[in-house]
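Contributing new complexes? Match this layout with manganese (II) ion.
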Amino acid sequence: MIPIKMMSNNDLDFDSVIRFIEERDRFTLLSHISPDGDTLGAALALFRLLKKRGKTAEVVCANPVPKIYGFLPCSESVVMPESAVGYENVISVDCADMPRFGRAIRIFEAAKHTAVIDHHMTNPRFGEINLVVADAAATAEVIHELYKRMGVEVDEPAAICLYTGIVTDTGNLCYSNTTGNALRIIADFVDKKLVDVAELNRLIYRNVPYGKTRVQGFVNSNIQLEAGGMIGVATLTQAQMKSFDATNEDCEGIIDGIRDIDCVKIAIFIREGADGSYKVSLRSKGVGDVGRLAALHGGGGHEKAAGYTAHEPLSTVKADIVLQAHEELERVLGGENKAE
Ligand SMILES: [Mn+2]
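Output block (do not edit by hand):
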């Protein structure tokens, strides 16, 4: 494989993590809440690496493994914080900050030694040892590099985990964060027949629960356009979700569908939570900074993707954010017009 320039910026951090692993024996790996393909794939691949080195390890997550990721090798061994041993050496995997641990935070806080392995640029490096590779497409890409540097062979189960982490964090190798290195890793897996790309694609992307298809169809058919089509907004109540037997997991991706409408610049999706609050998801495309909008409500995110939780009635939540999205478009486009 072609030498990787980007990872070499982190040479010293890789050395520290390798020493952290080699010098110790019992590890707890922490995945983040609302686990995705990367936090699970990367943690399970690291779990295998540790096992191969004769170490004791467990993977802990505050939420159950989503059904869709049940195909990941060893996913059945992922435990809830309550069932965790909580070994003295804790490694955070793909967690951008400590709140991402959810209630598993107490395991991190009780640890004797901690290491952080991640790829989020904003990671505050909250471990004793920190390996944050900001230009890696996925934490799975960082774990793959760890396999290489430690001279551990990637077997078929590990390849399935690493592949899943990389494709799910890059929108199936379509987003701008897709690196040449990520593509070379996958090319290598394909050459070595370690992954069946068609079968994994079916498991990850063509394996949709009935309730998800129905709830997404319902929301999509009720999208409203504002500001001459530049704002797309949709809402979903608990009662509507229940009528489709849809879970929170089934609502993932709805916001991206709103954003993808050709004329839409700012997409808004408001979903009622089980506690009666409203989760507001925001996306922008080319114009406007939704991170600013979320910050007005105490939320977080960045220019293109952000969100917050609101506690007012739905009509108020919707009217507020639509107005603010209008103002954001005016701020950006108004400025542009003046400059011309
Ligand atoms: Mn990730």
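Reviewers usually confirm one structural detail per submission. For this one: The two ends are 48 Å apart (CA to CA).
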